[in-house]
Write a structure and sequence with these properties.
2 copies of one chain form a homodimer.
Chain A: E1 5-6, H1 16-22, H2 32-49, E2 55-59, H3 62-71, E3 79-84, H4 87-98, E4 102-107, H5 116-125, E5 129-135, E6 137-138, E7 143-144, H6 147-154, E8 161-165, E9 184-188, E10 199-204, H7 206-214, H8 224-231, H9 242-258, H10 260-280, E11 295-299, H11 306-317, E12 319-320, E13 322-323, E14 332-336, H12 343-359, H13 368-379
Parallel strand pairs in A: 1-12, 3-4, 3-5, 5-8, 8-9
Antiparallel strand pairs in A: 2-10, 6-7, 9-10, 11-14, 13-14
Chain lengths: ~375, ~375
């Protein structure tokens, strides 16, 4: 017998209740019964996204939602301003380039967030920039970007849209789509929502709709105008992923019942416990700016390969965490605590980490990580 | 208590065994465990597609696979030859136009299949045509297109690819991808495979790979080169739809165990029974050329709205069938018998149809449809 614990930043664990919900018999995607489900889901997504606007549900991973946010908003000759502070910032630039447009890149050292003032400088001097593409949370570095402040800056420039990849942020901590002036917010099913991978979500502001009306870039499957028109009639443009939508309805009901504030507090407490454990174990954390509540990014001890830690955790203890990507490969490991993850999942991961560090000969006070986490939980409001 | 019977041409019913398979705990899409599954799925798809080439698995509906077959194969200035013999032929033309290219349309009256000679004529006179886009089966009309003959014609023209939408054909009847020279075959999970919607599949020949190397159309999420490169390492380019892939592995194992010939014979027998029932009920069938084994397309009796038949079947009897699309709305209804549908599902649909026709005042020998189907089943080889 070997139990498995999934603590990577997506896909995240799916609860047995949601798995069973998705195991219902398939119904037709154009039936009145399914339209009712989509109508309920539409409202649930508005609550989660904190918006009065429509939120599209696409059959794709989050990257599909990101691509559509380029191909539907920009037009030939436009530029997109990109904050490149990690692997997913690079993806924005790659997508913009793939459409033959010029990404204007603000390169931010991995581990830091961007200075909103630099975004202002670029927008002031280059009126060809029609949209700003940014992460809410850079999953590759564990850094939260100052989205609210960036929203305020972008609002100084009429007709410029702010597009936020909140794939690993939405549902973890507060993202006020409308209040902060976020024109497009992209998310995915396999993160804080605790669904399997397969659905992308995209909220669209009034400005986004205006830009969609003038966009002349090629698109078909990710045609947001067509999707939105269908959504207003509680339909998908193409065949909806029926079983995932069954799960989505359940998850959105649960989120509504729990309430966003409680959901955010739950993630914040887990993050606090993970950080306390890191400190107690004498492990440094990678983020230099605002570490996120999504995951905790640990630097491997000096001279130790983080890849080894990840491998022992997985193969010996059944705990799946993520290593570092690209330049961070071998240097960091990332323990996610978003979605269907509770305090004892984190205790499990910390306990497995302690045993792994012992095996690798790292010197520390055994039990100190778990103890620090317990103390946070006991002191916590939850 | 009201049982539901899904007899529409996608999504089709999913077996309880497959639903439970998909209800397994999620695993990480980059784990060795998941790579093993993808390796098995790769082989299973080659068997189903009757190809030695790789078959991509995309997180999308079939339309995403269709779009990628345009954006990855064609280049600026190319033309695509399209057989427009129904709603899905129109989709090929719309996708090609969306990319700023010219579709050369062969318009075929709905209900008929194309003449392969006309394809030859177009290819002879227009060397800008680099690919032929065609359906294996037009789901909107129930007509099978002569793909083998079209394959032979297209092979006369070096460097021209044949792209086949086999979304509602693959697994229903014989499609010999390699033997017939089909360069790209597109399919989807929610048809004969009996999975929920959410996965598209695309096989790629050597010629397709060559065309992908020269294609300069914009693409990112549906980047076949990137997907194929990852597939060769048993990975997806982005996050795989883990739960659907669990189901896919199960379905491909079942298909291998049953064998393609038995699977095709099963579908052929159901189609034969449905056609015999139609004749016994005095109902004409819509297709003028080769009716498919995927579904049976009935013309509503003179003066009767097919939409009413569909509605009564669904609301009173719990049997979901499809009506007509666009110009055929109100004129036809379509009973699908592909995928996880057995003889008693068809008997159920025919029985419900008889009761519906009685209610609508149609004069016929009650019981004759079910009787004719039973006679086919008893005489059948299965």
């Amino acid at each position: 017998m070997k139990k498995k614990y999934l603590m990577a930043p997506g896909p995240t664990p799916v609860s047995p209740e949601v798995l069973l919900e998705m195991a219902q018999p398939i119904i037709h995607h154009r039936s009145p019964q399914f339209s009712e489900i989509l109508a309920e889901v539409r409202e649930g997504l508005k609550y989660l996204f904190q918006t009065k606007n429509e939120v599209l549900t696409l059959v794709a991973t989050g990257t599909g939602g990101m691509e559509g946010s380029v191909s539907n908003l920009l037009a030939k000759g436009d530029k997109g301003l990109v904050v490149r502070g990690g692997k997913f910032g690079e993806r924005w630039a790659q997508i913009i380039s793939a459409y033959g447009l010029t990404p204007v890149n603000i390169d931010v050292e991995w581990g830091y967030g961007p200075d909103p003032g630099v975004i202002r400088d670029h927008l002031k001097k280059d009126s060809a920039i029609k949209a700003v593409y940014v992460q809410a949370h850079e999953t590759s570095t564990g850094v939260k970007f100052p989205i609210q402040e960036i929203g305020a800056v972008v609002k100084e420039f009429s007709g410029v849209a702010l597009v936020v990849d909140a794939i690993s942020a939405l549902g973890v901590y507060d993202i006020k789509t409308d209040d902060w002036g976020l024109d497009v917010v992209v998310s995915g099913s396999q993160k804080a929502m605790g669904l399997p991978p397969g659905l992308a979500f995209v909220s669209l502001s009034e400005l986004a709709l205006e830009m969609m009306a003038r966009s002349d870039l090629p698109k078909f499957y990710f045609d947001f105008k067509k999707e939105r028109k269908n959504l207003l009639e509680n339909k998908g443009a193409y065949t909806s992923a029926v079983s995932l939508v069954f799960g989505l309805r359940k998850v959105l009901r649960d989120i509504k019942a729990e309430g966003l504030e409680v959901m955010f507090a739950r993630h914040a407490l887990l993050a606090k416990a993970a950080r306390a454990a890191a400190t107690a174990l004498g492990l440094a954390m990678f983020p230099k700016d605002s570490p996120s509540e999504t995951l905790t990014v640990f630097l491997a001890p000096e001279g130790m390969d983080a890849g080894k830690i990840v491998k022992i955790l997985r193969d010996k203890h059944g705990v799946t965490v993520a290593g570092g990507q690209d330049a961070l490969k071998g240097k960091i490991f990332r323990i996610s605590h978003m979605g269907y993850v509770d305090r004892f999942d984190l205790i499990t991961a910390l306990s497995a980490l302690e045993m792994t560090l012992m095996e690798l000969g790292y010197k520390f006070e055994v039990g100190a990580g778990v103890k620090a986490a317990e103390e946070v939980f006991i002191g916590g409001a939850q």
